Records
---
Amino acid sequence: MDRRHHGLRPRGRRHRRVHALQEARRQHRRRRRRQRRGGDAGHGRAAQHPVIGNDVRTGEGNESYGNKTNVTGHADTTFLIHVAEDRTNATAVSIPRDLKIKIPDCPTKQPDGSTKVIPGSVGTTKFNESFINGRDPGCTMRTITEMSGIGINHFMMVDFNAVKTLSTAVGGMKACLNKPIRDTKYSKLNLDEGEHRIQGEDALAFLRNRHRFPSATRATWTASCSSSSWRR
């Protein structure tokens, strides 16, 4: 079609340059938005993603671990994963479940599609409460950003069943005990002194063994188990 015959200007070099400039500006704006949100793992940018361990007692594989009225769970064991821009390495920082922080106000989506703002904490409270009283994973993400100043736009959440499945998939996690564990009341864990490779139910029981050992030791073990899984 002759564009001049229809009163249209021909598309020459100038038009192509203008179009290329406009597209470059659009791409730049998209990159800036991704940076403000904390990066995007698919676009060659450094990225921060929390992995939230949820202790919910409902759903397949979760029903036999105590309080079945716990239908939402807490933000229990949580790691903030930093993925390097060149994707050659990742760094994980553990966020203790009992860390004293201030939870901000949090807008949440309701079943009817409306938005409800859940009030933040009055003063400081435990980190794991960022996922109770109507709060959702977005509230946990918002809490991490509030306390760290780090922008986040993706998260992953795992439950008890995921721990059993993932620990088995990687062939178990290495644990070396300087004394035996005999917990017949709570976790039901029964391990001798020495080196073990644990998976499935034993891996979950190992991580949940909060009554047999101090919280600080348990937190160290949680980090060790996670590191062992990532290495494998």
---
Amino acid sequence: MTNFNVQDIFLIFNNILYPSVRIFFLFYTAPIFNSNYFSIQIKIFLSLMISLIIFPYFSLLSFHFLSLDSIIILLKQILIGILIGFSINLVLFITNISGEIFSFQTGLSFSNFFDENMLSRSSIMSVFLNSIIFLLFLSLDGHLWIIFTIVQSFYIFPIDFCVFDFHIFFYIVQFFSLILINGIHVIFPIIIFLFFLNISLLFLNKFIPQLSIFSIGFSIINFCGIMSFFYFLFFIFFFLNNYLSEIYLNLLNIFFKI
């Protein structure tokens, strides 16, 4: 029969506490898991279960969990969890950029939708594009990508690592610039179409001054913008599918640079 003393119990507690803290804060900021439909209790339960599964595969920590080193490492786990979860969340932020640009160009920015899940207001097109990218994310096993990232993070950032490389913040800023560029690329054909449409309305107003462009221009731009969006919907779907397949590898490469 195996005998456990108090020191063994504290040792096991140490090796479950720190991974679960990192995983919990990653779930708190990562897409899908940061939804209000996942309560705090579910996030804590998932964090503890994943920690119980993975902790036998890593080296055991021997320091006391009430020491100064323990508190510093605990704060590092919180920072790493938030950082990784925020980085994954940036991947899906592309649709917010595209939807807001499209709404601004077509005059649909006034029609907002209150998202009870995220407790924020977004344009209708942003909500629609968010639904598309979330479905694509799930169809490509994005939730499994997040769990794989959790496991990989313990190899990239071990629990007892000493020095934190703050260059990772500059890498994330560069990563966000890549998200911004891709967000513009998603909606770029429609922007070009609306640009030529506005030029056409300009010449129409010049040659036919009796025609009030201000009264019909908004309706024309609105209608043509929505029609062009649905015409390019297959292109948007194809672009987002390739984007999700490639951008996650770029995100992993950023963490492997550290």
---
Amino acid sequence: MRPGSEAAAQAVVNELGVPVKAGPDPLQKRLLMKIADHFQELWAPSFGMPRGRVREFVADAAYVDEREIVQYLLAGHDLFSVMGSSEDVLGSGETIMGGDSIYSDGEWVWRGDLWFYVRNHHVCLPNEFLERIRSFGYTMPAEGLSSLMEIAKEIRPRL
């Protein structure tokens, strides 16, 4: 059988040894959710082209509503909990508990350490994400379990 032939595709077997037809590579399709903190240092290349490096998005001053934005980030729906801590990639020497965890509001996803970068380094968030946060009055919108599970299924193979 030649690779790429119909017969080769049907020769793939699952973990139980049952032949299954191979589908498209899930990592090749475009992400449906948006990544609020898509910085080179924080996300694997499998998540696509980052916005840039964290340092490029550090502002001189905090958002006037920074406290409310941070609370929104901390209230996110937990998609993946990671025990342990992550180091501040901007070099403060601080560590952030659960920094590698992933949260969502149903449309956007972010790492568990994003609140830290917003509060301590005044990292700028995408305008579309800020508009969403503010439009909800800084209150995390309710999301159904099935919706969050779909987002988690999209993220998991890329981790």
---
Amino acid sequence: MYYDLVRKLSQHRKIFTAFIPELNKSIIFAFDMTSHASRRTAHPGRSSGFYIVVLVGLADKTNYTKRPLSLGEQVARLKQRGLVFDDESEAMVYLFNISYYRLRAYTYPFQENSEDSEHNFTRKDIRFKDIINLYCFDRRLRSLVFNAIEKIEVAVRTKIVQVYAESTDDSHWYNDKSLYRFGYDDLMKHIEADVNRSNEDFIKHYNFKYDNPPMPPSWMALEVVSFATLSRLFQSLKLDNRKNTLQNNSV
């Protein structure tokens, strides 16, 4: 009931929900995204809408009572729902290595998934080996994508550090406020938090051996900050020949 209401409201409205533990209820705030002619006449050039506040009880929640299934029971349940097996013993080996729950993401598009459905397969020709092939394809694709992303990320970090360290002749150039257009203080907080969170041995070594500057040099600090922090740093840097060089090199 609660989730059906949220789905209906979200069709034409932006929704926000807040749970009130004391009342065991949720409040739904829905901003009407539709436009009405009467409102356009009254307020030309302005978008308008209204808020709906609904107090929804969560009485439809219940205890989780599903019991664990043996590998044989997992195969039996999938068969009952319409999945075809060529070799049930082999299927149990896959399930023991991959898990029934993980494979659910790959069977989901081929099943009925409404709130009260039995999750039966919508076609009679879907085989367990098809699901495994889909899983293996996804795994290989993710491996290729992540490998490419890692190479790009390493190159981006290296180029930023090299260009600015060499041009400023400063190991800690990222601390220089004059290099930035905006957001310096907030950026330093993010860099410091990321560095302090790191467990890398070279960060520990720097902290053990040096006390000034308190933060490690750029080739250490920018190696361990998140890519989000690195992107924030690059966006904040002033527009000059160094930044143009990096942009022209596909950074």
